[in-house]
Each structure stands twice: as structure tokens, then as C-alpha cells.
Amino acid sequence: MVRFENVGLRYGPGPEVLSDLSFQIDANSFQFLTGPSGAGKTSLLRLLFLSLKPTRGLISIFGRDTATLTRRDLPDIRRRIGIVFQDFRLLDHLTTFENVALPLRVLGREESIYRAEVVELLRWVGLGDRVNAYPQVLSGGEKQRAAIARAVISRPEFLLADEPTGNVDPHLARRLLRLFVELHKSGTSVLIATHDIALMDLYDARRLVLSDSRLHIYD
Description:
The protein is α/β, with parallel strands linked by helices. The chain has a single domain (29-53, 72-218), classed as Rossmann fold. Helix content is 33%, strand content 26%. The chain has helices at residues 41-48, 73-78, 96-106, 111-124, 140-152, 170-185, 197-201; strands at 2-10, 16-25, 30-34, 56-61, 64-65, 81-84, 158-162, 189-193, 206-211, 214-218. The strands form two sheets. The protein has a six-stranded mixed sheet with strand order 6-7-8-3-9-10, with helices on both faces. A four-stranded antiparallel sheet has the order 2-1-4-5, covered by helices on one side. Strand 7, helix 6 and strand 8 form a beta-alpha-beta unit. The radius of gyration is 17 Å and the shape is globular. 31% of the residues are buried. The model has no long low-confidence stretch (mean pLDDT 94). Its main location: membrane. InterPro entries: AAA+_ATPase, ABC_transporter-like_ATP-bd, ABC_transporter-like_CS, ABC_transpr_LolD-like, Cell_div_FtsE, P-loop_NTPase. One of its GO terms (biological process) is cell division. Residues 2-217 form the ABC transporter domain. It is a peripheral membrane protein.
């Protein structure tokens, strides 16, 4: 589903942030991405979400060479990818319900069809009493859970999550991990970037470790 061949990335004239990355991510797979702060985890996620272009090398996603994609192609590819950003990126003028339902609205679905599903997911992530709240009154942990719900509601083919449990307690972190595992069991490939070793130890999955700009893989 994803293939990197000798991918390198640098910002400006400085040294490469990522060097000679060659790996693949299969359909219906689960992996953690880890490494020290500044190792390039977020940069790698941005490459996977097509919001950043590599300096060199080949990236293929869903069988398409990303170098040949036009601006018109990008929305269709991104609709197949769910992403949890570290800064949440909720829309301030939308309620929690509306933010989470946004991917379904973009797909043209009617609220009468998806409303119960969205409300149930919000209850599951502990936001059942925040359905009509706006982002301005949500805590950091609540915003994080809303962002996770928005990313998974459309059951994407590929889910990227950048530190998705960073603002929640260990009990809720385990609950959210179960959500990602269930999504994986339904057919979604999952990549979770995290520093949380205890969280990774809860689930036997492939680990992609970034260190000194290079990637090491432990199956």
C-alpha cells in the first residue's frame, strides 16, 4: 500500500532530516513509529499524508507514484487516509459533533444516516456530554479525543496518528489503543507515532524506529 525507496528529506540547505528510507507498509497492517524527539517522526507522517514532498527518492501510495500526482489527485488520495495531528486542527466554528462528522459530510452522506454512529463514537471516547461543545471550551485531552474520533469515523484505508495518547491518562490511552486495534481488524492499516513505550508494549506490532535520520524496523 505504501512504498519508500531511498527517500531523503531536508529543509533548506541543512543536513537531511531523513536519509535513505526504504520500507513498505502493507494493506491491513499495524505498526508503531518511535524514536527520540527531533528524529523526524512528524516529517515522515507529513510525507505519508502528502503534505510534504521528499528531497529525493520514490514514494508510492495506493499504487500511485506521488511524484506524478497532480493537485486534482490529492483530495481523492487524502480521503483514503485518516490523520490525527498533534495540534488537533479542529474547526473552531463547529461543535464537537460537527467536527467529528466532517469527513462524512465531505463524502456527501446525510446526517440522518450517520448521526447515531457519530454520537456513539463520541460516547465511546468519553465525549458523550460534549457533543454540542465548541473547541474553545474543550480541554487538551478532549480536543485530542475529538481529533481521533474524526480520523476514524469514516473508516479510512490508512490511519496516521501523531502522539494520539499524549494528553490522556493511561486508562484512556489503553481504551484509545483498543479503538485503533479494532479499526485495524476491520481492514485499516494503522501507523501510530508515539514516545510511549508502555503503550507499545500493550500490543505486539511492528516497530519503525527513527534514529540519526535513518529508519530501523523491528518486526
